[in-house]
Amino acid sequence: MEKTVWGDLLFFVNFCMDFQCLFLTAKLLHRRFFLWRAVIGSALGAVYAVAALFFQTSGVAAFCFDCLVCFLMCFFVFIEKRPTTVRVFLPFLVYFGVSFATGGAMSAMASLLAHVSAPLVPDQAEISSGLFFLLAAGGGISTFLWGRLTARRADALRATLRVGVSGTALTMSAMVDTGNLLADPVSGKPVAMVKPSLLWQLAPTCRSVLENASPTALASLPHEWARRVRLLRAQTAVGEKMICALAPDWVFLDVGRGEAAVQVLLAPAALDLGFDECEALLPAELIRGL
Questions:
Q1: How confident is the model at residue 131 (pLDDT cuts 50, 70, 90)?
Q2: pLDDT above 80 for 134
Q3: What is the C-alpha separation between 45 and 47, in angstroms, rounded?
Q4: How would you write the chain as a 3-class SS string?
Q5: Across 80-84, 100-104, 144-148, least confident range
Q6: Distance (Å) of CA 168 to CA 144, 160, 246, 250
Q7: Which residues of 209-219 are buried (b: 16+ CB within 10 A; e: fewer)?
Q8: What is the pLDDT at residue 122?
Q9: What do you get for the CA distance between the two ends of the chain, in Å?
Q10: Domain boundaries in the chain?
Q11: Proportion of the chain above pLDDT 90, given as a percent
């Protein structure tokens, strides 16, 4: 049985799906997302989807070609200056999982829409292009509005942070900062910005290291404290700089629904002006699901 396939529509759908999957992969792995790389990578995947129509491959060969193209896309989008085997292949594996998840959702939607009653699509067994774009636009608009709503809710959220380090415990008031995207690239833990004076109380031995982000000072710390410190590269409004963050023994976060244990690093930052007596700035990612 022959079927008509519109190449431009197939390219558009695959480009959007690939771009979405690359974006979600970057978010899940806390990797930097380069827009132009993602556009080129998504275009590569979309061109392959159209070109595959002209080649009679199936089974294992087709699957291998699919994997190769996905790997090349992820390699191009997430390549780093000093890549390791894990950091090269991990985006590919996560991308594959995200693709299966989103593809399954799209298949379920298609199955549901296939049972739409006749008045919507008269005398047709398939969804018309007009209805397809209408549904796509509705989904995009609802996603955008939901994102803006949750961002506003997160931006205004206040919380209480209780932290323990080597027998010392402190409770501090915190608010969510949606602009804080800093995370440890190794563990994936987000980083909360804390008033320096509170951080010095928690770890006085590490003050010099945390204050100056000095690798030399870090090397001179006792092992008990050195293992708690992470040296991170931070992107700020004025450029890149190195900062040091502290890994506490335990952290409990309360957003008004009871305490919950969370995984977070603590880095010093001046919060004296404009933060309404706030003692810590939390990344929005930390409060999702609480």
A1: low
A2: no
A3: 6
A4: CCCCCCHHHHHHHHHHHHHHHHHHHHHHHCCCCCHHHHHHHHHHHHHHHHHHHHCCCCHHHHHHHHHHHHHHHHHHHHCCCCCCHHHHHHHHHHHHHHHHHHHHHHHHHHHHHCCCCCCCCCCCCCCCHHHHHHHHHHHHHHHHHHHHHHHHHHHCCEEEEEEEECCEEEEEEEEEECCCCCECCCCCCEEEEECHHHHHHHCHHHHHHHHHCCHHHHHCCCHHHHCCEEEEEEEECCEEEEEEEECCCEEEEECCCCEEECCCEEEECCCCCCCCCCCEEEEHHHHCCC
A5: 144-148
A6: 43, 17, 14, 11
A7: bbeebeeebbe
A8: 46
A9: 51
A10: 7-116, 157-287
A11: 9
The CATH number of domain 157-287 is 1.10.10 = no
* 6 residue type, one letter: W
Q: What is residue 266's predicted lDDT score, i.e. its pLDDT?
A: 93
Rounded to 5 degrees, φ, ψ at 217 are -65, -35
Q: Side chain identity at 238, as an amino acid letter?
A: V
Mean pLDDT within 83-110: 77
Tokens 């040296």, residue? 231
pTM greater than 0.85: no
For tokens 């700020």, name the residue: 236
